Amino acid sequence: MKVNWQLFVGLSVFYVIMTVVYWYVGGEAVGITGMLLAACLAGMVGFYLWFTQKRIGTIMPADNLTAEIADGAGELGFYSPHSWWPLPVAASAIAIGFGLIIGWWLTLIAVAALVISIIGWVTEYEKPIDDPSMTVGH
Predict the structure, then answer these.
(1) Which of 8-17, 19-28, 127-136 has the lowest mean pLDDT?
(2) The domain containing residue 114 runs over which residues?
(3) How far apart (Å, rounded) are the C-alpha atoms in residues 138 and 128?
């Protein structure tokens, strides 16, 4: 990951330098803004990779030139095998876009649907409390 974060931080610095050059030669405001946003996005990815590497604290197999494929084996994380929640999240996001075109009332309904969809997606694998003393009404 060491090379990854250095690559993205370098890309962010490059975008900032190119933004200054573009501004100096008389670039338009939209281009300057877009290049600054690209610099910020590359910087955020670089910061995330740097932070993750520091948290792990070991040399990753990708950084070891003599590493074997088996060195990178193991659990990579939990990935949901099947989930329907991305569908309502995407539909709500599309409805927000349509609401900006059609009217504010559709935007408000779509934002409420988006909040409900995100809550459903985040809490999809929450376990219910099995202790009877923790339920309401007892």
Answers:
(1) 127-136
(2) 86-122
(3) 16
Query: Is residue 90, in this structure, part of any structural domain at all?
Result: yes
Q: Please give the structure tokens belonging to residue 16.
A: 């900032």
3-state secondary structure of 1: coil
Closest CA to 2 of 79, 57, 77: 57
Within a domain: residue 67?
Answer: no
Q: What is the tally of structural domains in the chain?
A: 2
Rounded CA-CA distance 7/3 in Å is 6
Which of 20-29, 53-62, 84-93, 112-121 is the least confident region?
Answer: 53-62
- pLDDT tens-place string over residues 48-89: 988 888 887 777 777 788 888 888 787 766 677 788 999 999
- The answer to whether 34 touches 41, Cβ cutoff 8 Å, is no
Together in a domain, 11 and 52: yes
Predicted TM-score (pTM) of this structure: 0.55
Nearest Cα neighbor of 50 from 110, 9, 19, 82 is 9
H-helix segments, the chain: 2-24, 29-56, 86-102, 104-122
Q: What percentage of the chain carries pLDDT values higher than 90? A: 57
Q: Specify if 100 maps to a domain.
A: yes
